Amino acid sequence: MSGFGDLARAIEAARQAAAATARRPRREVARALARAAARWRRDGELSRRLPQDARLSPAVVSAGVDATAQALDADAMAALVERELGSERPVRPWLVAHVLASNVPALAVPAIALGCLAGAAVLVKSGRADRVSGPAFRRALEAEDGDLAATVVTAYWAGGDVQAERALLAHADVVVVTGRDATVDAIARRLDTRVITHGERTSVAVIGRDAVTEADSIARALAEDVALHDQRGCLSPVAVYVERDADEFAERLAAALDAVAIALPPGPLEPDERAAHRAAVAEAEWTGATVLGGPRGTVLVDASSRPRPSPGRRTLWVKPLSSLADVLPAGRIECVGVAGAVIDPVMLGRLGVSRVCAPGRMQRPPLAWPRGQLAPLRTLLALPAEPRLEVESA
Amino acid sequence: MSLEGQLATAIRAAGAAGDSFPFEAWALHVFAHQLAHNPPYRAFCERRGVTLDTVERWDQVPPVPTAAFRHADLSCGPPEAVFQTSGTTGGAEQRGRHGVPCLDLYRASALVTFERFLLPDAARLPAIFLLPPPSERPDSSLVRMCAWVGEELSSEAEWFGSPAGVDMPRLLARLRELETAGDAVLIAGPTAGFSQLFESGAAFRLGPGSRLMDTGGAKGTARPLSRAGFVRACWTHLGIAGYFCVNEYGMTELCSQRYESVLCDRFAGRSLEARRLVAPPWLRTRVLDPDTLEPVDAGAVGLLCHHDLANAGSVSAVLTEDLGRAVGGDGIEVIGRVRGAPPRGCGLLLADLAP
Asked: What local confidence, expressed as pLDDT, does residue A131 receive?
């Protein structure tokens, strides 16, 4: 598609197409999306280009693509529509625009699926490091359900292109922006339309005393949560609060990170990125942390439960468990992985946490995940909804 | 005499080219001194299981990250001066502080090295510093060093730093006088200060033998110049030839500096040698793999880890946030800073002055 004019016309056509598909049975839409997800998962270009573009290893990309596709389960999607919307549909041809971050690949897929389920047209502006997933999913949808694919437009323009934003986003009914705080705030300031922002957030895990007997399997599960997307996502754990024997658990975790990296190797890094990690780890060590592990995963053992900046690159702080309400920063934690501990969902809800699940499930949210405590479908249609915290049973 | 005093004497005796300087022996001696008199460093070494008995070579001495200077007082005794890193973000708590218990050691190292690389012909020139005077920035190690240069290695010293960066009208007037007189001059300051001068558009032909020292790189400059572009601008705007333009690499956390050897090489008949940052014999630098902290292959990019014996009064081994590589047998090239590291450096010294 060349030029903003062509794109603007395509977006308007998608909006009109959505007016018709919005009245289709949602179960039918959900089935089409699920079939498209299965087809998308096998897309050759996706597996060929995405590792290079996203700078992740092919194995990590493959695991991430699998997790994304699995989230588009037809029954779960139909249930989500039923629970959130019932028979409610957009009151007029509705356009949702997504401006996607680059930290995690395949963000376009849930964005498109949710828009289709809501009965809206969807414009997806891909992130710089994944311009493949969105077009690939649209191709898959086209093959499965041309009418539904007609409601979807995928695009890319360089971040900060104000002219593109004005031409293409200003007419959306809702714009959803994910990315760095500064980026999402800047876009929100520039647009007059309704904007939902998802800025920088992170996740933690809590390992209670009852988990002692399963420490190895929990460490392995957490290591997988860390390895997926190379710890770049908001659902990636960066700290583990351990109720008992933190040092011993830290050693198990370091071993697990090393072992998991064999199947899910880290992506390539530039010297300055490796150096930045070293500088952060060296500072942590100077300020009292014990450093375990190496380039395939690092554990920083800290006697204090106070949160510390995450160096990234598969690095986890292990800290003693104290009152989470006192140590977790409000509005910055997306997901809490829990094993062998009883947590207070009301307290976590007050802190802005949106997901509680078992280790190993942190990076595998269902499409119904209320990111930022927002109801995923009602938010897209600007319908009122209470803040939600999803507690996934083990 | 204190260990620092003995070292200052040894440095003055050796001179900056002293090939016979006993680095290894001093390094172990200094490490023992620091373990004994620097409690935070001793605790750091103990946590790593490092003691005097486990260190047999200088490159086994544990380096502290530059961040350590933001977190702790690393002085081995009551400091005679505390220098502070420059920076425009994060506030005072984000700035590194380097307490120096023996200023004479810093002075010895700085002056002997400066003379070798900037004044190999023993010239004594009027000095123009694009910096605030020491009374305004007593916490700047660069300003302190230049003050010593002004006292000991120049015929006179003038300071042109101002809250706006460089006091441009006064500087331009002074350069015009010097151009008219035709005398050689030493002009030194942050690279950003020179950029400001170049952007003014003024052009001079300073007297033959004039020379220039810049430091800090492109940080703080509105329009960063490549090194070649900078050297070209020195000729266009000041009439100073490239071989009289010497870049300095220094850090608040170190009492020794590296300099481009271009002028020194020219006077020694080695004009075809590559530009590189060369150190005095009491400063060694290793280029380390960020993952393993083992030395990288020759010429590969890695983290710079300095071992500066003139830091005897604090910590000698410092792991920086600078990336670089070895050049030739005796030099390094600095490539840049690690991603996300806080902005700092002499280029920001002028920005610090702004109200």
From this structure: 96
The C-alpha angle A128, A133, A135, rounded to 5 degrees, equals 100
Domains in chain B: ranges and CATH: 3-76+281-337 (2.30.38.10), 105-277+344-353 (3.40.50)
Residue B338 has pLDDT above 90, yes or no: no
Q: Which domains does chain A have, with CATH numbers?
A: 3-200 (3.40.605.10), 202-357 (3.40.309.10)
- In which residue are the tokens 């510093």 written? B129
Locate the DSSP E strands across chain A. 95-99, 121-125, 152-155, 174-178, 194-198, 202-207, 237-242, 290-294, 297-301, 315-320, 333-339, 355-357, 390-391
**For B45-79, how does the pLDDT look when each residue is reduced to its tens digit (9 = 90+)?**
999 999 999 999 999 999 999 999 999 999 999 99
Considering only the beta carbons, identify the residue of A275, A285, A286 that sits closest to B338.
A275
* Contact between residue A55 and residue A216 where contact means Cβ atoms under 8 Å apart: no
CB contact under 8 A, B65 and A282: yes
Instruction: Write down the mean pLDDT value for chain A.
Output: 95
Assess B45–A contact: CB distance below 8 Å, yes or no. Answer: no
* pLDDT, tens digit, 9 for 90 and up, residues A270-317: 999 999 999 999 999 999 999 998 779 999 999 999 999 899 999 999
Q: Is A276–B339 a contact, with Cβ atoms under 8 angstroms apart?
A: yes
Of the candidates A272, A286, A295, the beta carbon closest to that of B339 is on: A272
Inspect the interface and report whether the beta carbons of A286 and B65 lie closer than 8 Å.
Answer: yes
* CB–CB contacts below 8 A, A to B: 63
> What values do phi and psi take at B131, rounded to 5?
-145, 160
pTM as predicted: 0.89
Q: State whether B303 and A294 contact (CB < 8 Å).
A: no
Instruction: Write the ipTM.
Output: 0.86
- For A272, nearest residue in chain B (alpha carbons): B338
- B219: pLDDT confidence band, cut at 50, 70 and 90? low
> Could you tell me if B96 and B69 are in contact, meaning their C-beta atoms sit under 8 angstroms apart?
yes
* 8 Å CB contact between A53 and A130: yes
